[in-house]
Amino acid sequence: MTVALPIAIACLGALSMFLIAISMVPTTNVLKTRMRKLERIDERSLSQRNILINQIVSAEHKSNLRSRLDEAGWYEVTPGALALRGLGAYGIGMSVAVLLIIFLHNNVLGGIVGVLIALIGWRIPSIYLSRAIKARKESIARDLPEFLDLLSTTVQAGLSLSAALLQCVDATGGPLHAELASTLSEIRLGRSRQEALTAMAERANENSLTMAVSAIVQAEKLGSDLATVLQELAKESRDRRWMRAEEKAGQLPIKMIIPMALFMIPSLYLMIFGPVIAEFVAGH
C-alpha cells in the first residue's frame, strides 16, 4: 500500500499533464476551413456558394461555451479541448490534495484543503478564459473610437464604406484588427456587409462595438449621412470609455479598504504602540 500510493499519484499527475498537452495541440479552425473551401468554388456555382455561406453562419455559435471562446478570440480552441484542460488541471489538483492529506497524516483539514485545491484546479481554465474575454473586450473598447474617427474621415474623403474599411483595417491593431480582417474576408467571399458586420458584433459581444454596428447598419438602411453617424459614434464611444475610467477610479477607495486593513493599519499600530509595549516589557 505504501509503495502503490506514490505510484498512483505519479500516474494521476502524468495523465493530467498528458490531457493538458493534448488540449494544447492546435486544431483547425472550422470557420477558416469552410472559408477556404468556399474560395475554391467556381463563381458560377452560386447556389453551392450560398449553401456554404449558410453553413458558416449556422456553425459560428454552436453552444454557450463556443460563444465564450469566440469572445476571447480563441478560435483555434474547441470546447472539448477546454474540457480536457479542466480535467487535467483537476487531476493535478487531486494529486496535490492526496499528497497534502498524506503530509498532514489524514487530517480533516488536509482533506478540506485538498478538495478546495482540486476544485480550484478544475476552475482554472474557466477563470483564465473569463480574464481573456475581459481583456479582449477592454482592448476593443479602447481602440474603437480612433478607428471610428479614421473611418469617418475616410468616408468623408469620398470612399464607400467597404473601401473605407479596407483602408482603415491596417491602421488598427489587436483584437479589433483581427475581427475586422475576418469581416472583410467574409464580405469578399460573398456575404453581405450588414450580415458580416452583425456577425462580428455577435462574436465580440462588446457593447460599444455592438452599438456602433447597429447604428451603421441602420444608417445604411435609412440612407443617412454615414460620416456624421460615424463621428457621433466615435464621440459616444470616447465618452463611454471616459465614464468607465471614472467608474474604475471611483471604485479604488473601496478596493483599498481590504489591503489597508490587512497591511497598513497593523503596521501603523505596531509603529505607535510597539515602543510602548517594548518599554513596558523591559521595565518588568
Largest sheet: none
Q: How many beta-strand runs?
A: 0
Mean pLDDT: 76
Number of structurally distinct domains = 2
CA-based gyration radius: 27 Å
- State the separation between the terminal residues, measured CA to CA: 57 Å
List the helices and strands in order.
HHHHHHHHHHHH
Segments where pLDDT lies below 50 for 5+ residues?
56-61
Q: Globular, elongated, flat, extended or rod-shaped: what is the shape?
A: flat
Which structural class fits the helix and strand makeup? mainly alpha
**Percent of residues in beta strands:** under 5%
By DSSP (H or I, 4+ residues per run), the number of helices equals 12
Helix percent reads over 70%
Q: Mind explaining what this structure looks like?
A:
The structure is a single chain. The chain is built from twelve helices and no strands. The chain is mainly alpha-helical and 284 residues long. The protein is flat. 24% of the residues are buried.
List descriptors.
2 domains; Receptor-associated Protein; mainly alpha; single chain; 12 helices; flat; 83% helix; 284 residues
